[in-house]
Amino acid sequence: MHFSSDNWAGAHPSIADALTHHAAGFAAAYGASDLDKKVEAKFNALFERDVAVFFVGTGTAANSLALSTFNRPGGVSFCHREAHMLEDECGAPEFFSHGARLAPVDGIDGKINPELLENEIRRFPPNVVHAGQPMAVSITQATEIGTVYKAAEVDDIAAICRKHDLPLHMDGARFANALIALELSPADMTWRRGVDILSFGATKNGCWCAEALVVFDPDKARDLPFLRKRSAQLFSKTRFISAQLDAYFENDLWLQLASQANAMSDLLQDAIRQSSNARLAWKSDANEVFAVMTREKYAALLQQGAQFYEWKKPHSVGDILEDNEIIVRMVTGFATTPEHVSAFADLLG
Amino acid sequence: MHFSSDNWAGAHPSIADALTHHAAGFAAAYGASDLDKKVEAKFNALFERDVAVFFVGTGTAANSLALSTFNRPGGVSFCHREAHMLEDECGAPEFFSHGARLAPVDGIDGKINPELLENEIRRFPPNVVHAGQPMAVSITQATEIGTVYKAAEVDDIAAICRKHDLPLHMDGARFANALIALELSPADMTWRRGVDILSFGATKNGCWCAEALVVFDPDKARDLPFLRKRSAQLFSKTRFISAQLDAYFENDLWLQLASQANAMSDLLQDAIRQSSNARLAWKSDANEVFAVMTREKYAALLQQGAQFYEWKKPHSVGDILEDNEIIVRMVTGFATTPEHVSAFADLLG
Amino acid sequence: MHFSSDNWAGAHPSIADALTHHAAGFAAAYGASDLDKKVEAKFNALFERDVAVFFVGTGTAANSLALSTFNRPGGVSFCHREAHMLEDECGAPEFFSHGARLAPVDGIDGKINPELLENEIRRFPPNVVHAGQPMAVSITQATEIGTVYKAAEVDDIAAICRKHDLPLHMDGARFANALIALELSPADMTWRRGVDILSFGATKNGCWCAEALVVFDPDKARDLPFLRKRSAQLFSKTRFISAQLDAYFENDLWLQLASQANAMSDLLQDAIRQSSNARLAWKSDANEVFAVMTREKYAALLQQGAQFYEWKKPHSVGDILEDNEIIVRMVTGFATTPEHVSAFADLLG
Amino acid sequence: MHFSSDNWAGAHPSIADALTHHAAGFAAAYGASDLDKKVEAKFNALFERDVAVFFVGTGTAANSLALSTFNRPGGVSFCHREAHMLEDECGAPEFFSHGARLAPVDGIDGKINPELLENEIRRFPPNVVHAGQPMAVSITQATEIGTVYKAAEVDDIAAICRKHDLPLHMDGARFANALIALELSPADMTWRRGVDILSFGATKNGCWCAEALVVFDPDKARDLPFLRKRSAQLFSKTRFISAQLDAYFENDLWLQLASQANAMSDLLQDAIRQSSNARLAWKSDANEVFAVMTREKYAALLQQGAQFYEWKKPHSVGDILEDNEIIVRMVTGFATTPEHVSAFADLLG
After folding, report:
1. Which of A129, A132, A228 sits opposite D234 (nearest CB)?
2. Subunits touching A (CB < 8 Å, at least 3 pairs)?
3. Which of A109-113, B333-337, C222-226, C320-324 is predicted with the least confidence, judged by mean pLDDT?
């Protein structure tokens, strides 16, 4: 009953096998091996265009490098108030971009409200040095609270970016889960809608450690090789990431894993809907489930061996708690089984 | 005949097995798992004291975080002119420490000359703001040119550090190779000689991706958890590093691997000594071998399938080249076999 | 009728005279002259203790250096949502502190609400690296909207700082105006209440360019000489700042100038209270006056030669505007005369 | 007998008068006043083209902002080993450019040797991320040791910059002295020779505090307003700089002042040539004079009231000292008189 996070699982057996398979032999370091090139080509195929890909070690690295690509002095990037880069990255985006600021934008369901985004951008008129200058917009797909931006919602944000000539970043730590939820192609969920740069996460979905920064217009990636190296994210044996991603993409393994995670989330949501001891806090589209229960019930479940966390009530959710109630988060993943869910459902009652 | 670098090999089979073994199941993320704790305890045992250990993804990260631990405005760190952090890290140390400078110090055999170090430090008198202020000293063990600091040589540097109240960092990207060469214990090669902080490298010696920053006085590591996270080096599935290191230390595997690498280096040096087409540029103590040959011979060997690089003549080496001669570097590693060496020796003639 | 800002005036004649007086002759550069030492001693006398004083060129420099003194990786400093450092310094505080973040705290009347401050600090539990770590608290005295923190209000903030072991910074760009409003001594408005570091502004109150960073415990200022020099704020002819401050303090000139500014503000507030075309937006304690008027009236006054700006409605003020009404700001200064005020009052009607 | 530095003098009477003259009245802040615009126009006239001008408070600020204008990750800027930005700015250039490095280039007479510059740039091949990437070249005119780059010498450096597509910065802390020495127009000493950006110093030559960054192609200055504000160098009462520069340029005052300084330097050099107790260390072209004397003679002169400093023997000067001899530096300035020089000459004997 491990629902603490999708990073509590290890790696999918095929990923582990790939690491074993490629452990033997010699190959060029620092991303110049045939395997590295092969995986880069897979990214091109996946996104139906030539892209620039940069493997990195963490989602925080991908997000922070993404912003630093568009760095401006006095720069301000706009993201949702509950975005991972704002809440959970210890100032890495600001560090990587030399102090450029993250400005929180509100919006229900964990998604940026386009009108509020527009208002916030307008607070930084061009050429007014005191306030600073807009630099980028970042959306998280799927969001931190398990929802996903619908295609039209991405369009709305992208239109504002175009209007203000701002690049659009997508934090895809749970990219595959969003893709499954939306039934879109990778291209249709990203550059065809106006996304300029993507943090492509694979770690949560079955890899040990495999994240990639994808720049859809390779011309805009001129500085990234240096930015990555300077931030100590260029691995000598880059093949250890390529090997994981090679297996990850093989036979659409990645989509199967995300489907499994999302399906388990659906199952879990059903169980909660049927429970008399909890209710859904809101509907999740991807692999994070949020429920409301009493503090006592939560304590009892932990006691009985369930593993999951209390979650701070998001700003973007209204007044849904009664006295003594809390919100809890349960995350499903590639390694979650129906048995995990039903064992939890039994305990929940 | 792969002598390009010790990072062209993949991972040792035991390391790969460990990753497979730990791929299944769930465990706490971000370094809180039992396996993470177990490996931390192994570091304590290894160094015969309680140390603070921080796993990171690259040697550049370890070095750069090490310096940033002692960061000062206008800070100047002293390292050998040919140090990796100065020559090959794209300004990462300066980036991590917000612009603190690296000052090159000369010295023969790739090692800092203590007298020149003393002179260089004196260029920054306390309280003279214009010049800046000394911040740290860094030595590389083994050095970039395959030599190692003898115990007494580390003592000399450490004495200068103590005199000026400067922390001493050791870049141990090839720590195990130096250890084998010196026949010292880890404690005797580090903190017992005055080393304060160590970049402990395991990637070059058989891991896929496993580096650690070791702080010998844990009280001085207060900021490091935040520094590491802020630099995007805290891995969610930290177990993927712990698993590698667990196997690395098991039954002294790491020492066997470094012994193998060093032995192959000795073999290769013998072969070069006996060759009429090349000569040793200088004696190597660890797993990098440097030879002098003509440009034509180098081209011929490449043609015949040998893989190794021309090496820029180090500042710290005198006038050893005749017309048309170059220096080449050959690196042995855990995966180098006597067959590799003898095949190369045959070609060399 | 110049009410645009207190930095539209030039310098008080005594300040200008001092610059002329000290223009002749030679003296040690970089803060080592007798005049520099004399003015430093005046700061000691003023604050009734030995302080460390650092002259700088702008209020932004003083604020940003103040925060950088307490810099921490992943650091978060707390200030009012409308604080100058958050709204008007183009990210300088973040730049100087290498990406440390400013967290806005709400509160009515432009002042931090202690309870909200406590809540905000609690969002960063010690040792949780993801969120970051608290670093400092900053209050502005007088505030950006013309109010001042009463002594007890400073006490409340300082108590929270002590509880969380956080340094307290005071942005005193309008320090003298607050002092006059509160009828407190400099010591009683600062370190005796728990303020650790002060941006002491003199430019707005009659100098050309004279700001100082005052550290009440000189032991905590060890790095500041280097921080200041590194940020290009150490002036070679530091006497040009000392000369201004020498005259500024002479015969309590500074207090007279602030009294004049505050008195003109009172006069102006009276005029607005008596007007049928405007009303006070809120009561000002210092030298900034905020009024509500229609957009038409504002346009008409500008047309007639009055100089002042529309002001964005602060978050910390409730719903005080009717349709078509705006808030305007009028700033009085040392150079404002009763004639300026009455001319404006006549126009206002 | 004040020869310690050209920043030991205060301000020229005309400069002081200008500050008094403009002290009265009100004008727009932050560089928007008529006076600010008037002085900007004077820069255009001076350089015979439209330039972008940014007033700042220190030469260190001008130099550091200049480099940050061309900032690149892993960036390396090339300057002479004895350049002020490398020796005397406490890491400000690295801080402003987020850790970009300064690479020292040798050359006799304090001037970059073009061949060595070419060699040094070649150490950073395009697209090799390990080494970093070239970013800018900076020359100092007049140099730190009183020499000036001849027109053809600037041409040589500029040609290398063009070849490698690198911007050329000129540190003109003593711009006027170099101009007088070379008898060139400002345009001919800068952009017509390939200089892209200039630190224009006026402080040492008679102002209290007036430095400007001049960008010859205004299109390249897009980020500079934000860079300047973010580094706390945008003064609210910018008129205090404009007023100084207005008087500085009026009736070619600045050229008269530099002529005076250079003439006094010539007089002083003559005196030293005729002395039996000292000799010229090398010929100075501008307003810094370097002499060789015994340590005893130096001590005696200090005792008798002469003020000047011992100077560390520059790398770029050969073996010119005999036992017990030292190099001393004497700086003349706008306030130096023939009486100062002859009094010194009398003491020197």
Report:
1. A129
2. B, C, D
3. C320-324
Residues of C in contact with B76 (CB under 8 A): none
Q: pLDDT tier at B258 (50, 70, 90 boundaries)?
A: very high
Percentage of residues of chain D with pLDDT beyond 70: 100
- Inter-chain touch D226–A74, beta carbons under 8 Å: yes
- Kindly state whether residues D103 and D152 are assigned to the same domain: yes
Query: Is D165 an interface residue toward A (CB < 8 Å)?
Result: no
- Angstrom CA distances, C198 to C35, C47, C55, C206, stand at 22, 11, 12, 19
Asked if C73's CB is within 8 angstroms of B230's CB, the reply is yes
Owning domain of residue B304: 254-348
B128 in contact with D, Cβ within 8 Å: no
Q: Are residues C312 and C187 in the same domain?
A: no
Indicate whether C5 belongs to any domain: no
Residues of chain C positioned with their CB less than 8 A from the CB of B230? 73-74, 99, 132
Q: Does one domain contain both B241 and B287?
A: no
Six-digit token string for C275: 């007007």
Structural domain includes residue C330: yes
Q: Are residues D176 and D57 in the same domain?
A: yes
Mutation for testing the A interface, residue in D226, D227, D234 having most A CBs under 10 Å = D226
- Please tell me if residue B129 touches chain C, with a CB cutoff of 8 Å: yes
| Token pair listed for C303 | 């047309």
Distance from CA of D8 to the nearest CA of C (A): 5
Give chain B positions within 8 Å (CB) of A13. 20, 23-24
B339 touches chain A (CB under 8 A): no
B113 and B241 together in one domain: yes
Size of interface C-D (CB pairs under 8 A): 172
Question: Which pTM was predicted?
Answer: 0.97
| Residues constituting chain B | 349
| CB within 8 Å: D234 and A99 | no
In whole angstroms, give the CA distance from residue B200 to residue D345.
62
Domain end (from C252, C280, C307): C252
pLDDT of residue C266: 97
Which of C217, C234, C252 marks a domain boundary?
C252
Torsion of CA B225, B226, B227, B232, to 10 degrees: 90
**In the prediction, which pLDDT does B182 show?**
98
Measured between alpha carbons, how far is B57 from A237 in angstroms, rounded to an integer? 11
Which residue among B90, B95, B100 sits closest to D91, beta carbon to beta carbon?
Answer: B100
Which parts of chain C have pLDDT scores under 70? none
Contacts of D98 in chain A (CB under 8 A): 98
Tell me the C-alpha distance between A37 and A58, whole Å. 21
Q: Which of C56, C89, C232 sits opposite D92 (nearest CB)?
A: C232
Task: For residue C27, give both structure tokens.
Answer: 């003296």
Q: What DSSP assignment string belongs to A5-45?
A: -TTSB---HHHHHHHHHHHSSB--STT-SHHHHHHHHHHHH
Q: Which of residues 176-195 of A touch C (CB under 8 A)?
A: none
Average per-residue pLDDT for chain B: 96
Cβ-proximal residues to D122 (8 Å cutoff; 6+ apart), any chain: none
CB A9 within 8 A of CB A198: no
Domain count of chain C? 2
**CATH number for the domain harbouring residue B17:** 3.40.640.10
| Interface subset of C 22-61, CB within 8 angstroms of B | 30
Q: Using CA atoms, how far apart are residues A47 and D278, in angstroms rounded to an integer?
A: 76
Q: Are residues C310 and C248 in the same domain?
A: no
Average confidence (pLDDT) over B10-22: 97
